[in-house]
Specification:
heterodimer; A: about 400 residues; alpha/beta; seven-stranded mixed sheet; six-stranded parallel sheet; globular; B: nine-stranded mixed sheet; five-stranded parallel sheet; 28 strands
C-alpha cells in the first residue's frame, strides 16, 4: 500500500511567550486558554483538519506538560489516525549532536526524519500563537498552480505597525523580491503571518544547507527565506483576508478575547463550516441566575453575580454580589461574593476572595503605564484573600 | 476483586412518553441541556468501575447508536469488553421481545460469554447517582440471590413495583401495579445478581415459558430465592410521562440537585464541539441552564436550553425546555413549552402550556 501524505504540517509550539508574563510561567504559549473554552493551539489544529491535512507534528520545547496532555492522541480534532495524525515532537537525545531546538529552522531540521516518514510533496509550517480561521488547502492550491518553491501567507497591516513583522516586498504577480525581518523603515505593509508552504525537497535542501552555516541563527525569517530568495527560488506571497491576531502580548490577548463579543463579532466562532474543535470538558450546561450582558459563558459555570463585557471560561463560579467587567476568566475560577474584577486577565484555578478588588475600571486603568497597559494579570493558582486589593496593571503570580 | 458486568435496558416503557420516543428510544431522550437519559445509568456503571456494558435495544435505536458511538466518551471503547449494543434477535419467532424477560433471554448469549462474577441490570430512564459497587458489597454480605435497589418516595401513579423490606433489608412482600398512598419503597428497576444465578433463572424461565420478570421471577420467587432490597437515599427521579420529564429537568435548576448529580464525578456524554454561549447587550437570563453554542438576545427565565439554541431579540421564554438547534424568533412568548430538536419558531409566536401539561413541539417543526 502507498504510504504517503501529500502535505504534512509542522506546528512550532515551543515558544516561551515571555510577553505573557505570569500566564506562561508554567505552560507554553500555545497552551494558553482563549475564548472561554479553547487553547490557542486549537486554532491551527482545527484549521489543519478543516483543510484536509491529517498529519501534524507539534514541536514543543518550553514547559510542554500541559500542552502534551492537552494534545494527547489528537482525538478532539479527529487527528487520531492509524497513519498520520498528530504527533508531539520534543527535542531528543541522538548518538551525536544532542541538543535543544536552537531556532525555528533547526527545530524543523531535527525532525526531517519525521517528515520523510510520510514522503510528502509539500510541508506546511505553522506557528502556535495566532488566532484565525484559514483554509490551508486554498493556499496549497495556489502554491501548486504557481509552481512555487515556497509560498508565504501574508496580510496587510497598518504601516505604523509594519516594523513588528516580517515584511514582504512583492511584484504585481505576487512573487516576492525581498523579505525584510522587522524592518525599521518598511517599504510595504504586507506582513508575513508565519505560515509557509514549502515544496518538500526544497525545504529539506535549504534546511541542510543552513545547518552547515555556523553563522546562521537557524531561523526561518532571518535565514531560510532570505537564502532561498538569494538563490533565485520561486517565492510567492499568498494574500489572506480575514481575521488574524497574534496573541503574544497581554493587550493583544485581551483584545482578541473581546473580538469574540457582540452580535456581529470581529471574529465569529459560530461557524458550522469551520468548527474550532477543542478538548471540550465534561461539564453540565452553565447555570445563570445573575446579570450577564455582552459576554461569553462556557459550560460548567455558575453565575449568580454580574458579568459585563467579559469572557468566562469553563467551570467558573461568580457568586452573588460579585462583579466581573471587561475581563477574561480562563477557567475553574471562583469570584466570591462582593468581589470586583475589572479589566483583568485571570488564569485558571484562581480564587478571588470575598469583597476583594482586582484591577480598576477600564477608563481609569487604561491610563496606567506599564508592561500590560493597565490590564491586571493573575497567574495560575493565585489566591486573592478576602478584602485584598490588586492595583490596575499589576502582574501577580503569588497569592496575595 | 469481584468483577461486574452491566446490562442496560434502553427501550423499556417507551410508550409512556410517546411524544419524546416517536423518533428515539427512551434511553436517548435528550435531558438536562446536554445529556441523554442513558448517560446517567451508564455513567453510574462506569463510575462504579464497570468496564463491560451491554445495552439492550429494541426499535428506533438509531439515535441511541449515534449517541453512544464506539463508547469512547465513556471510556468504553475497549479491546476487552467495553460497550456492546444488543439489538433484538429472536430464534423462535419473528416478533420483537415484548417484555423484560424476553429481552433478557436475548442477552443471555452475551452474558454467557462474560467472565464477570456479578451483573447489574438497570433501566435507562432515571436520573440518580449511585455507586453500584456498594450494592454488590451488600449483596455479598447478605448472601442474597437478587438485590433490588429501591428508593422511598410518594407514589405518583400505579405502574410501580413496591417492596416491603424488614430491618435486615430482606424483601417481605412485593406489590405490582397497586395504587398506594404515602411514602413507599419503590423498586427503581435496577438489580444485582451473580451472573451464573441470573443465567440459571433465565434458562428456567425459557424452559417453563415464563413471560414476566416481576411476576414469574420476583413475586413467584419470593419464598425460594433470597431477595433483598438496597436502600438508595440520594436524589432520584424517573421519566414516566411528559409531566415527569418536565419536572425532572426543572429539578436541575436546584443547586443541591445539581451538586449531587454533577459534582465530584463526571456524567459522561457524547461531546459535540460548540462555541461558548453568547449573551448580547439585550440578554436577560435568570435561573436557567444554558449550554455551549447558545446565542441569547432575549429574555430567558427558569429554562433549560440545549446546544445551539438561538433566542432572538424581544423573545421571552419562561419555564421552557428547548432542545438543540432550535431557533426562537423575535418577540416570541413561550411558556411551559418543551421543544424537541431542530425546530424553528417564527417571529411573534405565542405558545403556552401548563406545568402538568407542557406544550410539546415535535422534532423539526416550523411554527
Amino acid at each position: 500500500m502507498l504510504r504517503k501524505k501529500e502535505c504534512v504540517a509542522m506546528l512550532l509550539a515551543g515558544g516561551q511567550g515571555s510577553r505573557l508574563y505570569a500566564l506562561t510561567s508554567n505552560i507554553a504559549k500555545p497552551a494558553v486558554s482563549f475564548g472561554a473554552k479553547y487553547r490557542i493551539i486549537d486554532f491551527p489544529l482545527s484549521n489543519c483538519i478543516n483543510s484536509g491535512i491529517d498529519t501534524v507534528g507539534v514541536l514543543t520545547q518550553y514547559q510542554p506538560l500541559v500542552l502534551n496532555e492537552y494534545v494527547g492522541n489528537g482525538q478532539p480534532w479527529d487527528l487520531d489516525r492509524t497513519f498520520g495524525g498528530v504527533h508531539i515532537l520534543s527535542p531528543y537525545e541522538a548518538k551525536k549532536d544532542t541538543s535543544w531546538y536552537k531556532g525555528t529552522a533547526n527545530a524543523i531540521y531535527q525532525n526531517i526524519r519525521f517528515m520523510k516518514m510520510y514522503d510528502p510533496e509539500y510541508v506546511l509550517i505553522l506557528s502556535g500563537d495566532h488566532i484565525y480561521k484559514m483554509d490551508y488547502d486554498k493556499m496549497l492550491t495556489a502554491h501548486k498552480e504557481a509552481g512555487a518553491d515556497c509560498t508565504i501567507a501574508c496580510m496587510e497591516v497598518p504601516l505604523k505597525e509594519a516594523s513588528r513583522f516580517g515584511i514582504l516586498n512583492t511584484n504585481p504577480d505576487g512573487t516576492i523580491y525581498e523579505f525584510e525581518e522587522k524592518p525599521k523603515q518598511p517599504k510595504s505593509n504586507l506582513a508575513s503571518m508565519g505560515i509557509y508552504i514549502f515544496t518538500a525537497s526544497k525545504l529539506f535542501k535549504y534546511l541542510e544547507l543552513d545547518e552547515q552555516d555556523p553563522k546562521s541563527e537557524k531561523d526561518f525569517g532571518k535565514n531560510i527565506l532570505p537564502a532561498m530568495l538569494n538563490a533565485g527560488e520561486k517565492m510567492y506571497s499568498y494574500r489572506f483576508e480575514g481575521y488574524w491576531k497574534d496573541v503574544g502580548t497581554i493587550t493583544s490577548l485581551l483584545e482578541a478575547n473581546m473580538d469574540l463579543l457582540g452580535t456581529v463579532p470581529n471574529f465569529e466562532l459560530r461557524d458550522s463550516d469551520n468548527v474550532i474543535h477543542s478538548r471540550s470538558p465534561l461539564a453540565p450546561p452553565a447555570y445563570v441566575a445573575g446579570e450577564v450582558v455582552n459576554s461569553l459563558i462556557a459550560n460548567g459555570c455558575e453565575v449568580e453575580g454580574k458579568v459585563i463585557n467579559s469572557v468566562i471560561g469553563t467551570n467558573c463560579i461568580i457568586e452573588e454580589g460579585a462583579e466581573v467587567v471587561d475581563s477574561v476568566l480562563m477557567g475553574n475560577i471562583v469570584v466570591k461574593s462582593g468581589a470586583k474584577v475589572n479589566y483583568s486577565i485571570i488564569d485558571e484555578e484562581v480564587t478571588v476572595g470575598v469583597g476583594s478588588v482586582v484591577g480598576d475600571e477600564k477608563s481609569v486603568a487604561c491610563k496606567v503605564e506599564g508592561k500590560t497597559s493597565g490590564i491586571t494579570v493573575l497567574g495560575r493558582g493565585v489566591e486573592v484573600s478576602d478584602g485584598a486589593k490588586v492595583a490596575a496593571g499589576e502582574i501577580v503570580d503569588k497569592s496575595v | 476483586m469481584n468483577t461486574t458486568v452491566g446490562v442496560i435496558f434502553s427501550s423499556i416503557n417507551d410508550e409512556q412518553v410517546p411524544e419524546l420516543t416517536k423518533v428515539r428510544s427512551k434511553g436517548s431522550i435528550p435531558y438536562g441541556g446536554r445529556y441523554r437519559l442513558v448517560d446517567f445509568t451508564l455513567s453510574n456503571m462506569v463510575n462504579s468501575g464497570i468496564t463491560t456494558v451491554g445495552i439492550i435495544t429494541k426499535n428506533n435505536y438509531q439515535s441511541l447508536m449515534d449517541h453512544l458511538g464506539s463508547g469512547k466518551e465513556w471510556d468504553l471503547a475497549r479491546k476487552e469488553g467495553g460497550l456492546i449494543l444488543l439489538p433484538p434477535y429472536s430464534d423462535e419467532s419473528e416478533m420483537l421481545y415484548k417484555n423484560r424477560l424476553e429481552a433478557l433471554k436475548g442477552s443471555s448469549a452475551f452474558l454467557k460469554k462474560c467472565k464477570e462474577d456479578f451483573v447489574v441490570i438497570a433501566d435507562s430512564d432515571a436520573v440518580y447517582k449511585l455507586d453500584y459497587s456498594k450494592v454488590i458489597e451488600q449483596h455479598i454480605a447478605t448472601n442474597a440471590d437478587i438485590t433490588l435497589i429501591y428508593h422511598e418516595h410518594e407514589s405518583e401513579n400505579s405502574s410501580y413495583i413496591i417492596l416491603d423490606t424488614g430491618k435486615d433489608e430482606k424483601v417481605k412482600s412485593i406489590e405490582i401495579n397497586t395504587h398506594a398512598k404515602g411514602v413507599k419503597k419503590h423498586y427503581i428497576n435496577a438489580f444485582v445478581a451473580r451472573t451464573s444465578f441470573l443465567l440459571n433463572v433465565i434458562q428456567t424461565a425459557i424452559s417453563r415459558g415464563y413471560t414476566s420478570f416481576s411476576k414469574d421471577i420476583l413475586l413467584a420467587g419470593l419464598s425460594t430465592y433470597k431477595i433483598y432490597g438496597y436502600k438508595f437515599d440520594g436524589y432520584y427521579s424517573s421519566v414516566s410521562s411528559l409531566e415527569s420529564y418536565f419536572k425532572s429537568n426543572m429539578d436541575l435548576l436546584d443547586k443541591t440537585v445539581r451538586k449531587e448529580i454533577f459534582g465530584d464525578r463526571d456524567i459522561y456524554t457524547k461531546i459535540n464541539d460548540a462555541p461558548p454561549a453568547k449573551f448580547t447587550e439585550t440578554a436577560k437570563v435568570t435561573n436557567s441552564l444554558i449550554h455551549d453554542g447558545c446565542l441569547i438576545e432575549g429574555t430567558v427565565e427558569n429554562c433549560i436550553l440545549f446546544r445551539n439554541v438561538k433566542v432572538s431579540k424581544g423573545a421571552v421564554l419562561k419555564n421552557c425546555i428547548i432542545m438543540s438547534e432550535n431557533l426562537i424568533g423575535e418577540d416570541c412568548k413561550l411558556s411551559y413549552v418543551v421543544s424537541d430538536k431542530d425546530c424553528i419558531i417564527g417571529n411573534g409566536r405565542l405558545l403556552a402550556g401548563y406545568e402538568k401539561k407542557p406544550y410539546f413541539i415535535n422534532k423539526g417543526t416550523r411554527i
